[in-house]
What we know:
The complex is a heterodimer of chains A (about 475) and B (about 550).
Chain A: H1 3-31, H2 37-57, E1 59-65, E2 68-71, E3 74-76, H3 83-95, E4 98-104, H4 109-122, H5 128-135, E5 142-146, H6 152-181, H7 188-212, H8 221-239, H9 244-255, H10 266-269, H11 277-283, H12 286-297, H13 302-313, H14 334-348, H15 361-371, H16 378-388, E6 396-399, E7 404-409, E8 419-424, E9 435-437, E10 451-455, H17 464-468
Antiparallel strand pairs in A: 1-2, 1-4, 2-3, 4-5, 6-7, 6-10, 7-8, 8-9
Chain B: H1 3-32, H2 38-54, E1 60-65, E2 69-72, E3 75-79, H3 87-92, E4 96-102, H4 107-117, H5 130-137, E5 142-146, H6 159-169, H7 174-184, H8 200-213, H9 218-231, H10 235-254, H11 258-272, H12 279-291, H13 295-307, H14 313-322, H15 328-335, H16 341-355, H17 359-363, H18 371-384, H19 390-393, H20 402-415, H21 418-427, H22 433-446, H23 449-460, H24 469-479, H25 485-496, H26 503-520, H27 526-533, H28 538-554
Antiparallel strand pairs in B: 1-2, 1-4, 2-3, 4-5
Helix pairs in contact in B: 1-2, 2-4, 4-5, 9-10, 9-11, 10-11, 10-12, 10-13, 11-12, 11-14, 13-15, 15-16, 16-18, 18-20, 20-22, 21-22, 22-23, 22-24, 23-24, 24-26, 25-26, 26-28, 27-28
Amino acid sequence: MNTANKEDREVHKSAQDIINQLSVILRTAQIHDPGNIAVTTAIDRFLLLINPLIESERSITLELIGEFFYINDSRIRYSLEYLLNFDFLVREFKKREIGSVMFKDEIKPDDLKTFLKAFITSGFSDAPYEKMLEDMEESQSIEIGRLKKVKEGEEIDTRKIIKKTYFNAVSYAKGVMTKIKSGEKVNIRKAKRIIETMVDQLLEEEQLLLSMTAIKDYDEYTYHHSVNVSILSIALGQRLGLSKKILTELGLVALFHDIGKVEIPYEILNKSTNFTDDEWILMKRHPVWGVRAILKLRGFDTTTMRSSIVAFEHHMNYDFSGYPKVRNYTELDLYSRMVSLADQYDAMTSSRVYSRIPMTPDKALSIMMERAGTQLDPLLFKFFINMVGVFPIGTLVLLDTKELGLVYESDVVFADRPRVLIIIDSKGERVEGPVVNLTEKDEAGKYLRSIVKTLDPNKYKINLAEYLL
Amino acid sequence: MEPSEDIEDIKDIKDAKEILQNLVKAKKTLRMYPQNNPVYLKTLEDSYMKFKSFFDYKENLMLKIKQNSIFYDSEQIYYNPEKEDNMALLFFKDGLRELTFEKGLPQEELEEFLRIIAKDFDREAVDDDIVTLLWEKDFQNIRYIVDEAFLVDVDEEDYETKVESEVKEKITGVEDLMRAYADGFKEEDVKGISIVPLTDKDLQMLVKELEKDSSDKTEKLITVLFEMVYQSEGINDLEDTFMFLKDAIKFSMKHGEIYTVLNVMKRSKEMLEDPLLTEYAKEYIRILFLYLGTEEIISLLAEILDSGIEIDEKVFEKFVEVLDKNAITPLVKFLGELKTIHARKRVIEILIFLGRKDIQAIAKGLDDHRWYVVRNIIYILRKIGDKRAIEYLLRTVRHGDIRVRKEVIRALGELGGREVVQTLRECLDDPDTEVRIASARAFGSIGSEAAKKIILEKVSDKIFKDRDFEEKKEFYEVLSRWKDAEVFDFLIRSLKKKSFFSRTKNYENMACAAFSLGLLGDKDALPILYKYKDSNNKLLREFSSTAIKRIEYSQ
């Protein structure tokens, strides 16, 4: 084994352990008295982890940027075993507007007890960050910093980059289908590069890339659908704690899931009315055609194998009630079950795939919830709904403040409290923004805004692209 | 600028240039030599030292990449207008525009980097470009900037602008918006989807799912392909599906998964018995069985066997059972190319099994230009034991290699039959001792009266006495196979035979007769053997003693 890699992995594991243990301490301290053995044991374990690192690095800074933790500027990947504790810590940090905690010198149990006390007390304050800062004024070895808000200019630049990636991917998907139709060779290296960029962006700016999938009003929706399913699948995979390399494979497999549709005439694929029985028969052939297209495209390798399996299985359903009907089958592939969730969600919320009437994202989710356990994998659905949120991006919502808005970003921690772009203000006037955060509370600790109704943007011909692109 | 700074800059550029020259050299060396080779190790060490000394006074080395040149600090430090072996082009063509090595770059990371650039991206079946490989490694001390523009086809360059303006064309009308706003108040309140929080049990289940998912997917795809056989709508569909099944077999063989191939064939066999399957499809299944015996697959089998991968005995046996006789010719071909004894032994076992189905196909191997292949084929024919092989074997009796001749004589002996006697008889007079001995043994194997007479005749010949002791001993040993009075009497006579000339040679004959009597095991020979036990001749004394012991112990 490569020594450097091994060392890196060990350091990374230590970093994960530190975050996890801090979460354990805070959870325990919320239940028990600081002097309780459960708390002191947790503190001792934390000190054993952090002090050697402080000694070698001089200081350790734990920082929350977006939805991810960084330790001394290195992003610490979620690992499955720590998922719940990481999420807890993100939530608690956000609640207190804490962006960073710096540990320096040797940390003593009393230093940590001061930190704990300040942390817990601040949770009941209206100005939690200021309260915590005040309580920790005396602390020499632990310092906290406020949660940074993304600067508007930076966000616009990032959005531009992400938009570029998205359209590159769509353009590539279109190119692939065209090339397959005309029997030309397809460059798979390009596909990998595009997916890698999407994986990187999902890790950094999940919400921005997900927002691209909310716009469904394109003329050539088939290509957008392939990319959307790829993005949603990667995002789901990221929630499952899959590695970057595996996410790339998953993204690639998802991108090709509908490749069998190249055999279906354009007029049928894009017709504005419902399919006839004969057209449905044709549509139901696309999984088999997909396998054929993929295996003809490239020789056998692990990615083509998985792509073929997913192309074949993505409409079969968890309970095998879908198509194609099979004889000797035991279980659907994990990727197929993941892609199936992404595919159904994107298909239901668009107007051109299968259903002629698009659904609102929340309506689609509630139907999917009914299907969880029959057509859809119930376990994966839990992760999926946590990923897209109760009110997914693009949902048209009326707030209790009489403001009308579009869900702009989901919140990783508070799934029912997204960021909303206001398009009609409380006076009933059309506006362009601002983007409001539904997790914000007033001085009495009451939420400033909450969603009371959801509406179908399609019914009112609201063009999401106008707001989200 | 201070003169000292000027000098420092010149040194930077000189050092950066050297690093790059070193990278060019390392790219070639790492491609040529294995990882444990001293040249490889030295090149790696040299490259590392160059970086290390650069980082003694610099925090990083940032290289700007153009199509045919590489710049450091706006100085061109590399230029190559050629397409071949162009380091700049290697990076540039995949969109890499800036490459930065950070201080602290460990040797392991540098080695990984060098191994990436050393790949032959044009010739090797590499699915990844250089940026993908760098991305997958997730280097801590090597950063890069890429231009993604090349990912878009030239005719799709303005795709984003075009689609964006199209999709934004339908501006949301104020009236529609206001209607939505008004309707919003009439809508039902959101019931909300109750988010079920993830529990520890969910995570445990997920861990199990992920563990399960790490298994090989070939079998799964094969299941899909078999389902597709039933989904086929015409001959073209079937043709495609069976082509994929062939690919699956090839892929599995390449990865040493004989068990998977066996499963494919097992399922194919079951399908042959399925009354619901069309005759067309069944014909393709039969072709699939034949595919296993093609040179393409047998060559992969040869690789597996040579690699020393452990194969379950039962799996291997079953695999051999599904092979058809068309595998014989490629198996014979690869028999001569295998590198290990173990692999050759395995192929010989298969050929013995398959050869029964087609002796002629096996016998073609007798024409191989490699003596050891011919010898193996003779061995195989001998083990098969089919007399139809004799006509082919007789042709190789005059083979140029003594080892082949010995083997064929042995085979002919074991196969027996009148047609081999004359040839073997001629071999008894061969100028080569080993051939003569082999022929004598072959007659022993035949064991007929005629064979006995021929050997008796040979050892009775006057000139036989003058042959080497070992050869004579072999002939007498062969004689002992006929445990009858004729041979017994002959041996007694030989033992008693006196001679005034060539006494040493005569004693040798007597010793051989004593030895043979011992093997014969007749106790009537004991009195005379006791007599010679005290002979003045050491050889006769020893052989008589041994014979006595053998007879007495066997009683």
